[in-house]
Amino acid sequence: MSETNVTEAVPFFKVSNMEAALRFYVEGLGFEMTQKWVVDGKVRWCRLEHGGAAMMLQEFPREGHDSWVPECKVGEGVSVCFICQDALALYRAFRSRGVDASTPMVGNGMWVTSLTDPDGYRIDFESDTDAEEESVYEEGS
């Protein structure tokens, strides 16, 4: 095969409450819903995009065909890192929307701010920096 066949990897999160997940990702983090599957007037699946990154969400049924009742928060132990141009700008934007993002610090040569979504998925936004390792962001700097 002379050309690349695989073009992207898109995390697919099962969520317990689509409305809460969309508030977090769209209203809180600024993702845009670019595709959706609606059943009985309710979004059951969607693709969200932010810049060049994407993810998919689907609310799982608790009863009937294809039902699933998880034993814990479905996102526990799962983390996704979004590499971006300016994690500090995103941190400030998230905080201005009332989202509880962690204070950015430098790890592995990158500013990192982390969040946990309503289902326990850890979301990291990271950007390259030449700041000293383990530096902590200070408001107003």
Report on this model:
The chain has 2 helices and 8 strands. It is of the alpha/beta class and about 140 residues long. The protein has a single domain (about 10-60, about 75-130), classed as 2,3-Dihydroxybiphenyl 1,2-Dioxygenase, domain 1. The strands form 2 sheets. A 4-stranded mixed beta sheet has the order 1-4-3-2, covered by helices on one side. Strands 5-8-7-6 form a 4-stranded mixed beta sheet, covered by helices on one side. The longest helix is centred in the first third of the chain and has 11 residues, at about 20-30. The radius of gyration is 17 Å and the shape is globular. The mean pLDDT is about 90.
CATH H-level superfamily title: 2,3-Dihydroxybiphenyl 1,2-Dioxygenase, domain 1
* Overall mean pLDDT: 92
Strand order of the largest sheet: 1-4-3-2
**What oligomeric state do the depicted chains represent?**
single chain
Shape: globular
As for the number of domains, it is: 1
The CATH class: Alpha Beta
Give me the strand/helix succession.
EHEEEEHEEE
- How many individual β-strands? 8
Strand proportion, as a percent range, falls in 35-45%
Main beta sheet? 4 strands, mixed
Low-confidence stretches: none
Measured on Cα atoms, how large is the radius of gyration?
17 Å
Number of helices: 2
Looking at the overall shape, the CATH architecture is Roll
Which fold name is given in CATH as the topology?
Answer: 2,3-Dihydroxybiphenyl 1,2-Dioxygenase, domain 1
Name the structural class.
Answer: alpha/beta
Helical percent range? 10-25%
Through-space gap between termini:
50 Å
